Design the sequence.
């Protein structure tokens, strides 16, 4: 279940400002920032804040899930992304590397732009 901040968690540290990040948008419930190892230019992450550490989406209170999607929409619009993926991995076998719930917003570059 959702717990308080986890001292060893990278994303809890990012919310607290203990690890620097390139912040995009912040609301009362969520924090969004650029992915450090982007799959494409503008690859963003949205995470719950308020010292809420939850590993998987089903452990996260609904209000945090509901807060995240409008942020994903704003990011996609701000980036002018015509093609993009919203991705959310839960558990190691589902390719979750950071065990703090996060939503990816991954713009797809136009074909002529290539990756990056
Ligand atoms: P996952 O595979 O867990 O769904 O995705 C985790 C994402 O977090 C990866 O895309 C990875 O590049 C990103 N990431 C891991 N550590 C950091 C970090 O310290 N800062 C930022 N901005 N992104 C991170
Ligand atoms: Zn955490």
Sequence:
């Amino acid at each position: 279940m959702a717990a308080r901040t986890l001292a060893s968690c990278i994303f809890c540290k990012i919310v607290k400002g203990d690890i620097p990040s390139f912040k995009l948008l912040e609301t009362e419930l969520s924090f969004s920032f650029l992915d450090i190892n982007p799959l494409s230019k503008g690859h963003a992450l949205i995470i719950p804040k308020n010292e809420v550490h939850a590993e998987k989406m089903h452990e996260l209170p609904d209000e945090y899930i509901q807060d995240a999607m409008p942020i994903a929409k704003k990011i996609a619009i701000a980036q002018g992304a015509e093609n993009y993926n919203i991705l959310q991995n839960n558990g190691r076998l589902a390719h979750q590397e950071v065990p703090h719930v996060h939503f990816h917003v991954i713009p797809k570059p136009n074909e002529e732009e290539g990756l990056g």
The chain has one domain: 10-107. DSSP finds two helices and five strands in the chain.
